[in-house]
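ping. complex inputs:
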Amino acid sequence: MRIALGQFNATVGDLAGNVAKMKKIWAQAMEAGADLVAFPEIAICGYPPEDLVYNRQFVSDTRTALEDLAATCNKGTVVVGFVDRGNGGLYNAAAVIQKGRIVHTYHKGNLPNYSVFDERRYFQTGDRPVVFNVNGMRVAVTICEDLWNTQRLTDLLTGVGRFHLLLNISASPFDMGKISRREEVITKCTDVFDCAVAYCNLVGGQDELVFDGRSILMDSTGCVAATAKAFDEDLLIADVREEADGIKIVPTQPPAVQPADTIEEVYEALVLATRDYVLKNGFRQTILGISGGIDSAITAAIAAAALGPENVQCVTMPSRFNSPETITDSKLVADNLGCPLLAIPIEPILAQFSQSLKADPRWTDGGIAYENLQARIRGMILMSLSNQVGSLVLTTGNKSEVSVGYSTLYGDSAGGFGVIKDVLKTTIYQLAEYINERAGREVIPVAVIKRIPSAELRPNQKDTDSLPDYDLLDRVITGYVEEDMSARELVDSGLPAETVERVIRMIDRNEYKRRQSAPGVRITAKAFGKDRRLPITNRYRTTVTDPKKQP
Amino acid sequence: MRIALGQFNATVGDLAGNVAKMKKIWAQAMEAGADLVAFPEIAICGYPPEDLVYNRQFVSDTRTALEDLAATCNKGTVVVGFVDRGNGGLYNAAAVIQKGRIVHTYHKGNLPNYSVFDERRYFQTGDRPVVFNVNGMRVAVTICEDLWNTQRLTDLLTGVGRFHLLLNISASPFDMGKISRREEVITKCTDVFDCAVAYCNLVGGQDELVFDGRSILMDSTGCVAATAKAFDEDLLIADVREEADGIKIVPTQPPAVQPADTIEEVYEALVLATRDYVLKNGFRQTILGISGGIDSAITAAIAAAALGPENVQCVTMPSRFNSPETITDSKLVADNLGCPLLAIPIEPILAQFSQSLKADPRWTDGGIAYENLQARIRGMILMSLSNQVGSLVLTTGNKSEVSVGYSTLYGDSAGGFGVIKDVLKTTIYQLAEYINERAGREVIPVAVIKRIPSAELRPNQKDTDSLPDYDLLDRVITGYVEEDMSARELVDSGLPAETVERVIRMIDRNEYKRRQSAPGVRITAKAFGKDRRLPITNRYRTTVTDPKKQP
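pong. complex structure:
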């Protein structure tokens, strides 16, 4: 039996576009002699459709689109994800299409409702297995999370008899380290069910999420026989054969090159997510402020790789607080990348604002308000130019800054998409090295990498005036934000109590800024956004010393 | 048996503060001879704690706070909501305290996971009833949503034997019309279980949500015997007696005055939610832009009622596009309310910005970019003054504008809290009449009410240049946003197809603006925010004419 996994880039809500893509992939698979073609979870409407499924017209249009696909796929077997209206409500479903007709419908039974997932908000729980035949092989259908609870899956599949292949259609978002967790789960399934596994994943960016593809074919001995491309569309074809020592999988194509390490994964995730956010939202061009610092340089480099440097307008907006290197390094970054650069000094606007604000006698040229004003003038310049030419503003804040609120609301945080929003500062430095290595030249200037981080909003300002060293800061953020560690646990792990308490306080207090921030690419197991839902109004304070003494 | 319902205003995360309030209320109830005191759902830590419950320290601190409360409450019986760590995970729980000890723990069995609720994200489902005795009466404990599914509740309570009182501790947020749905549900329970019902609700604002209190005591014949105050703390005390014809409830105090109609409800909801957001987040003062239009006038009036007029700094920021009435009407509004007014003309800043932006030859003084720039200059002035003096910026956008994106990101949408974000323009006019009637004088000037709505960002601009009449617009928004009606259904209900399609398109396209907007008070059954989770990247388009022809 020849199987084809149609790992493609769906767009949420583009029913006609997604179906057209799948028809084309199906034709290619038929051309290649496939008996079974699988498409990802909810591929008809793109994942996650969120509250779109509350729109009755949307669900019935999805059905119409599915039937349109089925009518075309009149040869072989096709399995595709969609949203099904059944008895008792909506289901996250897989249709099995044979001879142009939907012959089975499977309803997902394990609905994730944690992290970025809200599936119990929308879907009812399925409880009936679906097993079908293709060329003498029996195939059991599952959807994404079904695979991650083998006890539940064992209960579901008890009584269906022997099957050769467990097919899983997924929309599994990327985070650093996810691939190895996925492989472990799939290996466990080959062991428990003594069958091969075909795992077909979605690829592409959707708001915060980026799906990395890397569909997997694993034989019944737990050996990865084939993996599809990472962060790109692919059609993975292989033969599934029953042999004496198990179910074997023999791919028809050479293996796809996989990312060498986590930093390469992150780079590719950022590039794909940025490209998809920009293009799927109808933009071609982007604009961003270039400060001469490393964050804006990396953001520009990612955007240039995603969209072409000609579509990345860089703007340097110096004030009297900027060092001379601000402009020279900005120019160097733009030149290295091949991006257009515009210079708009903010001093005249700053002076006029300050003059007008003196209408309130409490106004002073100095302090936080005056610093924020500078950042906001820059944000407004970018927004004005973007409105004028129809480009999208990219924000340049990294996860370390976003965590502790080291940014100005409506200033440097103003924009449509946060490319490095979930990337810690320490990872930013690794990305800079990777980008230069990949290009084989100094794309991110060494001067920019070596520069001491500064917001340059007052004379001789350095980030470390307000923040701990980034190495230490990032360890607190990783523990507190990503791993739900308490202050006590962080201190017990060897971090200084004063820093832990101060950083946690800053993280907690800046929820209001994050609530109004642009979406950005999620690359960790817990990003800010749908992943982490905290109240703004929140008087809880963890202290290391005595939890009862709350201020 | 004498029961006391401790309807109080909890603050999320303020464990010590909430416990201190409850101790005080308990003492008052004991003084009044109560045998049983009930506090709302998750009252120990405030509702909803959201992802705070992932913090292990938070959950154990909650336990410590509960035990502290229990130790004080050494007389009578107390029922209070908290987050319990049990076998298998966390539970939304009620502790029954007798003689200073926790004698029973009930786990909520019906977990809402729709609308603004995410309870299945956090909690496991309870499946064991708790019934306890107080002075010869048997009391069954339930939590909020448990009451809304009588079939499930019947199954749960089968076998517990006769009980006289169904106690429900709730955190049920307000929306227009909610009170009658609640009364229906409670009436049904008295009928199904042939018992009295004591319904203890939370009161207060928490981010988007406002809890309206209005705790209810209903006798077994379905008659409301007593209702606690609306939008305020209250201690509702009554005797519960078994008589020949059922379980009677005799309150010990005169009935609380209830809002006369929906507009009065909305007004009180906005005032309470605004006061709580500002004060619970550590602010005292607010600032807002006053345009001479009705939206900013209503926002100022609500804020003045919530915080006192001296804490509401009004700022008028005229340009050459404003009519002379902009300043005179702004002054009139501020004077009527007793709020301080500051005037900062934006022309000099606008001119300097425009001059600087000419560095990009594509910049023009006219068009949308130039209009947005004016709104952004105003937003920056307000943010700068708020940063300087430590006040909170209130935004003035209404739900009609927020729906169709008739606002400037980082401009008029800049701010910390959206007072009228969920109030349709047609309701705004009703609020204006109500405010004047309540005050017995012209607080909102008739000139402001009668003025034709305009953003005044170009000569002779009117809202109706871009939008349908508000009556029609609001009907489309109500149907599409609040009632999940499709374009086809809206047209079938009598609305013009062209308008329906155009408005829906505008609503769909402006998700990105709403994603970055400030939280605001929720007063409808579906507000923007946690209630309505739509993808930004979304190519779905409903059309009335032919659903297949998607652009």
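The longest helix of chain A spans residues 367-389.
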